[in-house]
Specification:
Elements (H helix, E strand, L loop, with lengths): L4 H7 L36 E5 L6 H10 L2 H5 L3 E5 L6 H10 L6 E5 L19 E17 L7 H10 L5 E4 L5 H13 L4 E4 L3 H10 L4 E5 L4 H5 L3 E6 L24 E9 L4 H15 L2 H9 L4 E4 L1 H22 L2
Helix pairs in contact: 1-11, 2-10, 6-11
Length: 334
């Protein structure tokens, strides 16, 4: 079973991981999806809601707010972030998939889960229920622990896990989600077993770590960087091809002898059936937002990766990722 989600996906589209925070951009595309009614020529005429299916303060929330902070400059209207966490993303995304009109005024931030959770019986919706618009982020998984945790490094952590199967608890976004599958990637590569603990966002997992009720967590580096810099947490390894330029002292799993390259990505989407003209307008605006200095500063300061794919490329990227995450899903069934 391969643990190289990012590298394999990128082979089918573009180069992998903008670890230094630089922007990767592709040519413009169109949605390919249609709605019976044509988009208003003056769209948008009112503020847009952007649903974040995770709690405030987590990586998705921070990135979404940074992305849309100057929306009016690029789209002519404000975009309001609305947090609707719960049920491993199913509440917020389910609202978009089942009950939102494709009028362009309610969008969401999607990640890989909408492409594979349905086949696991965890969501009652799938990729076909969304209109992909623009991808803006790609992040490797980071394995983080409390600063005073008993493991000095990754090898001590894995040795303890191997000697005591199931003893170490690892928090992530919920059963079958990308960060949960990242934990499975570690188990498969190192021959260990953890107890997976679900959380509705990184911020709650961080609090559990700091409170001593959770041993470790698998999220992006950006979701724990402030705690790392404050001396409250440590990152044992990141699942990227290369070390982060901003945090060069953190080893990769590869440099420690474990061939694990995996993580997540995020993008903007709406409900299925959006008018292609609306999608084109939104895509053009979101690409500009992702190149805005304010957004780039937030992403770089938090070590979040920036990867911009316009509509057609985002669709291709997502399709490739869906196939590759299926390998880790099968591994969880063993």
């Amino acid at each position: 079973m391969k643990n190289r989600i990012f590298a394999a996906v990128a082979a089918g589209t573009l180069a992998v991981l903008a670890l230094s925070g630089c922007v990767t951009q592709t040519n413009n595309g169109s949605s390919g999806q249609s709605n019976a009614s044509a988009a208003e020529s003056d769209y948008p005429t009112k503020p847009i809601d952007l649903v974040v299916a995770w709690s405030a303060g987590g990586g998705t929330d921070v990135q979404a707010r940074a992305l849309v902070q100057n929306a009016k400059e690029y789209l002519g209207t404000n975009i309001n972030v609305v947090n609707k966490p719960g049920s491993s993303g199913a509440i917020g995304w389910g609202e978009i998939a089942h009950s939102t009109k494709p009028d362009g005024y309610t969008l969401t931030v999607v990640s890989p889960e909408i492409g594979f959770m349905q086949e696991q019986g965890l969501y009652d919706f799938g990729l076909e229920d969304f209109t992909l618009i623009t991808m803006f982020n790609e992040d490797p998984m980071a394995l983080a622990v409390k600063a005073d945790a008993p493991w000095a490094n990754l090898e001590e952590f894995l040795a303890d896990a191997k000697a005591n199967p199931g003893k170490i608890t690892i928090g992530n976004a919920g059963p079958g989600l990308a960060w949960d599958l990242a934990t499975t990637a570690i188990e498969e590569a190192a021959g260990v077993e953890f107890t997976h603990v679900p959380y509705d966002g990184a911020s709650t997992a961080v609090q559990a770590i700091l409170g001593g009720t959770l041993d470790a967590m698998t999220y992006s580096i950006g979701e724990v960087r402030s705690q790392v810099e404050a001396g409250e947490m440590r990152v044992l390894a990141i699942a990227s091809e290369e070390q982060l330029k901003a945090l060069p002292n953190i080893p990769t799993f590869k440099s420690e002898g474990h061939d694990i390259v995996t993580g997540t990505f995020r993008g903007i989407a709406g409900p299925a059936g959006m008018d292609p003209a609306m999608v084109k307008t939104l895509n053009e605006a979101f690409v500009k937002m992702a190149k805005d200095k304010g957004f780039i500063d937030v992403m770089e300061s938090n070590s979040f990766g920036i990867k911009v794919l316009e509509t057609d490329e985002f669709q291709t990227f997502f399709g490739n990722a869906k196939e590759l995450y299926s390998e880790l899903i099968e591994a969880q069934k063993k």
